[in-house]
Each structure stands twice: as structure tokens, then as C-alpha cells.
Amino acid sequence: MIEDLWYKNTVIYSLDLSTFMDGNGDGHGDFEGLIRRLDYLHSLGVGAVWLAPFQPTPNRDNGYDVSDYYGVDPLHGSSGDFVEFMHQAHKRGIKVLMDLVVNHTSVDHPWFQEARSDPASRYRDWYIWSEKRPSDWDEGMVFPGVQDRTWTFDKKAQAYYYHRFYEHQPDLNMENPEVRTEIRRIIGYWLQQGVAGFRVDAVPFLIESTGAGKDPEHQHFEYLAEFRRFLQWRVGDAVLLGEANVLPEETRPYFGKDGGDGIHMMFNFWVNQYLFYALATGEVKPLIDALKATQKIPSTSQWAHFLRNHDELDLGRLTDEERERVFERFAPEERMQLYGRGIRRRLAPMLGDRRHEELAYSLMFAMPGTPVIRYGDELGMGDNLDLEERDAVRTPMQWADEPQAGFTTAEKAVHPVIGEGIWGCQRVNVAAQRRDPESLLNWTARMIRLRKECPEIGWGEWTVLRTGSPHVLALRYDWRDNSLITLHNFDDHPHQVRIKPDTAGGERLVSLLSDTESEADEKGAHTITLMAYGYQWYRVGGMDYAVRREKA
Ligand code: MG
């Protein structure tokens, strides 16, 4: 049973084919290149990769505008290359998740082309139309400032169509059962090709009621149940990982009543935003509140925790004052900000300090849930603010101090490689970091190994321990008579804290990161000193505690 819930104790690595590795020298990353880098991912220790959309696309939104759900974009290779990739990934024990982008299609998709040209077409009702301009035509944009409407008049159709995202991304009409049948077919197709599940794009928009006169507040969670049921009939341990930036009190129906009829996993955007607030201000209380607000989920459900992803760092859920404090610290210049709510920078340039980066990463691995790493962050890669919008964080992977960072042999890469400066590939690259035992890359590999050896974090119950410090977060995780404690100091000054493990074996804490241990005083408390941005992971009672308990 437990191995069917593999997603509760794995480490996911997210990458975009386009910018990871170019195998055929045309400047675009592809499956051939990715296959060559599977050993890298294997030695890093990741359990699964999440691939950004790789299907045929006019690529007006980084592939999130699909024009054929059953194919591989020729820039990334052939269907044969995909099958070879799946084979090679499985040989190394790496599971593959892929993006499911079905809230909308590209305008180029044949379904939309037919729908707009012929009112009698069976595809007409696959999209959302209105003959008159709806009163809310300029509301609810996903990309404010770049996008100025959600209903656009189409001359060919002589009607307005609805698009939550850019106007080249018409929303599918999910209320049409034929559309949902087609989505199940897409799910079934890729499961048959061996994927372990899907990262589901834009879930709240997928289930909203849309169309003139519809109540947009009404959400169709039954669609998620429908997809979940189908998925699980086909492949018992396949998963749905949802992108839904919603309030804590809104999350429950996404997971389903008992965790059995919703999506399995969700990105924890709420904790993510308060995590960055804590990193920016050194204050842990709001992060503790965020963790507690999202604590109660069904036992087979799981949070996915991340630091950065392919989008802007979305801070839209913070109060204006909280957001300003994060901007002040991490995005003081306006060009670093995006859509008025977020930051278009990578982790390393934002934090600018190896100790702070380690703290952030150690925390991500310590958050109760499953960690998701963004490609390049394991090296401390930088961003390129000269690129448009979110492309700033989508520069090619830096493999070596070579022309085009070893990403491609072409003269020109899909996005410019960061070649110079402190974030350039001369300084930040895999080849150099691999040789240096103290590099961020090797540190990350060690942390991944450690995280996989601590199933308490993915599986267990957890409790916040009192530290007496507003800057230090202490968490205890309990699972199957084993306990673990992690401590993180968000302040740029050292702090000494007193914690009581308050659990069996708590007299002795053995560090999992260094050759140290702590004995409790007569009151059962441990006095622990953390350096500036310091962190510690302890096993309660020591490594062999559980074994000894079993014998006794
Ligand atoms: Mg290529």
C-alpha cells in the first residue's frame, strides 16, 4: 500500500525541455539532450521529473498553448524519442510527470479553428462564446498589465470568446461532456506511454463556471473526481498534482472528501508566500500560521512545497504591507517585479548569500510534504531581467564553462544563455560544481539523500515546538514510533534556543547533518545554538532508537 503512495516521500525535479539540454544542435532543448542528462538527475537523487508542456505548440506562452495533445513538438523530437526517454528514465527508477494544460488550447488548435469558422461544427460548443460583449469582459485577467480583457471578439466567428489567460488561449468549455471525455482520452493516452501522473495547470479555472449569465463562483469539483477516477482505474498509483493558488479554507474540496475523489497533491502556494515573507523579514510567526492553516488534509493527500517555479514568485495572497516588505528585500527595482503581485527573479540572486540559500533549501526539504526543485536552482543559477516577463527565469541550464554553457552547440539558444557576470556560466555551472565537494550542487544532492531517508516528513504528523525566539522555526515530525526535529534560524544573527522535544526518546537528539548530539537537561530541554541563517536536523533518540524500542 505504502509504495502506491510513492508521491508522499519523493523529490520532484521540474524542468522545461526547451532550456534543459539540446541534443541535436538546433538551439532548442529536446528529448535526445534530456536522455543524455538522465544520469545527472539520477546522481542528484531525484525520484521524479515534472516536464513542462512538450506537445506541439505555436509557443506564444512557453508551451502552455497546446495545438495537439497527442504529439511531441518537433523541436523537442519525435514520439519515438519520447518513448526512448521514458525507457531510459524508468531504467534509472525516475518517474515522469507531465503538464496537463486543458483549461484552454492554443487558438491554432484545429478544434478552435473549426469552432470559429463553422457555427454548426461539433467543436463550436467546445469553447465559450457570447454574441454580445459580456459586462465583465475586462475582469479576471491572469496577467494584469499585459492582458487587458478576458473576452475577445473573433471576426470569423462573429462572436466573443472567453479566455482566462492571453487572448491566444481560448478556454475549453468544460461543461460540455464531450470535452471532458476528450480530456480523459488525453490522460489515458499519456498514461499508456508510461507517465506516472500529471501536473494539472490552472485547476481553479478548469472547474469554474464560465459563460454569459453563469455563476463564476460555482466550482465543479466533480470534474476533478471524474478525472481522478479515470486515472486511477487506468494506473493505480498515478497522481494528479494541481496548480491552485487558493486560500487555505478553499483547499479541502480540491483534495476531495476523504482524499479519494480529488487531486492527490497540490502546490502549497499559501505556505510558499509566507516562507518568502519569513526569508525577507526574519519573522517566523506568519509562516507558522500558514503551516497550521494548511495542516489538516486527508492522509493520502499531499502538499508539494517549492521555492521557485517557471512563473513569477506570486505574492498576491500577502497583504499589501507584507508584499511591500518582501519587495523591499528581494525586488527593490520595479523591473524585478511583475503583474504588480510578484517577483520575476530566481532564488540565488534574490537571496544573494549561500547561507541564506541553504536555509531556504533546507526548509523546503523540511516542509511537511513533498519538495519540488526548479532546474538550475541546485546550482544557484541567476536570472536575466532583460528578457520579457517570466522569461527572466527561463534561461538555459548551465552545464559547463563553454560557449552557450554547454547547453547547445548552436550559435543561438532558444533563450540567451547567461554568459557573463557573477551568475554567468563561467562561474555557475554543473561541471565545476560537480568537482567541488562544498558546492551548492553537492550540498543539494546530500540534502536530497537525507530527505529521502526521513519519511517522517512526508508521511508523519507534525507539531511546531516552542523555541522562545521569533526567528527560529522548530518542527517535530512523528511517524511509526520515529521522530525527527528540524530547526531553522531566519535571522542574520546567531540565536540560542531552548526546545523540549516532548516525545519518547527526547533526552537525546542526534544531528543528521554533523557529528554532534545534544543531551537534555533535567527539565527535558535542549539548549541549541544556531548560527546566522543556521539550520539543524535531529533524529530523536538517535539512529537506532526505533530498533532498540522494538527489541525492548
Ligand atoms: Mg534540439
Summarize the biggest pleated sheet.
Answer: 8 strands, parallel, barrel
Inertia-based shape = globular
As laid out across the biggest beta sheet, the strand order is 1-2-3-7-8-9-10-14
Class by SSE composition: alpha/beta
- The proportion of residues forming helix, as a percent range, comes to 25-40%
- Unreliable runs: none
Count helical runs.
Answer: 18
Q: What separation lies between the terminal Cα atoms? A: 28 Å
List the bound ligands. magnesium ion
Provide the residue-averaged pLDDT. 94
Strand content: 15-25%
The count of strands amounts to 22
Describe, in plain words, how this protein is organized in 3D.
The protein is an alpha/beta fold. It has helices at 17-20, 31-36, 38-44, 79-91, 110-117, 177-192, 203-206, 221-234, 252-255, 269-281, 285-293, 320-330, 347-351, 354-366, 430-435, 440-452, 455-459, 545-551; strands at residues 12-15, 48-51, 95-100, 129-130, 151-154, 159-162, 197-200, 239-242, 265-267, 302-306, 313-314, 337-338, 342-343, 370-374, 461-465, 472-479, 482-489, 495-499, 508-511, 517-519, 526-530, 535-540. Strands 1-2-3-7-8-9-10-14 form an 8-stranded parallel β-barrel, surrounded by 4 helices. Strands 15-16-17-22-19-20 form a 6-stranded antiparallel beta sheet. α14 (354-366) runs parallel beside α16. The mean pLDDT is 94. Magnesium ion (MG) binds at residues 22-24, 26, 28, 30.
